[in-house]
Design brief:
single chain, 170 residues, mainly alpha, Rubrerythrin, domain 2, 3-stranded antiparallel beta sheet, two-stranded antiparallel ribbon
Length: 170
């Protein structure tokens, strides 16, 4: 599947953001109070929806197989426990009311997804990426955040680590 130039409109991002915000509130959660950050995650969800056919978490590496990715389709299976324990989900899209009041509670959290669920082999990822991505993949060495772009971001959107803390993953 060719995914090199997936375009997502600001209108689509805004509409999806508002729907997710309403859904989150109906479950007693909130979206990250940093609206720009939250919308960047929403954009990632929309890109993944176009790429894979489902909204897999933009902060995790997808297998491009819905059966293998079912537990990380947003909202992921780990959201409730993460918010209960840490005040935020893994990617920090969903946060608790306490985290909205005290944004210092929003920080990188441990990955809860069991290793055996992460069925993607690095060789499979490299093969998939070499056939579909037009950019290298960068990984934050602090929190594991992945992004595909020419250069690493200046600051990790998850844990706020500087770009020096990124390594070329592929």
């Amino acid at each position: 599947m060719e995914n090199k130039n997936i375009l997502i409109s600001h209108d689509d991002i805004d509409k999806s953001y508002e729907k997710l915000k309403k859904d989150a509130e109906s479950y007693g959660y909130n979206l990250n109070p940093d609206v720009e950050f939250a919308k960047s995650l929403v954009k990632g969800l929309l890109i993944n929806e176009k790429r894979y056919g489902y909204r897999v978490c933009p902060c995790r590496l997808a297998a491009a197989d819905k059966e293998k990715d079912i537990d990380i389709i947003c909202p992921c299976d780990y959201r409730d426990k993460d918010i209960s324990e840490f005040g935020t989900c893994y990617c920090a899209l969903y946060v608790s009311s306490e985290a909205v009041k005290n944004t210092e509670l929003i920080h990188s959290i441990p990955e809860r997804r069991p290793k055996e669920k992460d069925r993607i082999k690095k060789t499979d990822v490299k093969e998939y990426a070499s056939n579909t991505l037009s950019f290298p993949v960068w990984r934050c060495k602090v929190c594991g955040y992945l992004c595909a772009r020419d250069n690493p971001p200046g600051i990790c959107p998850i844990c706020k680590a500087s770009k020096e803390r990124f390594e070329k993953f592929m």
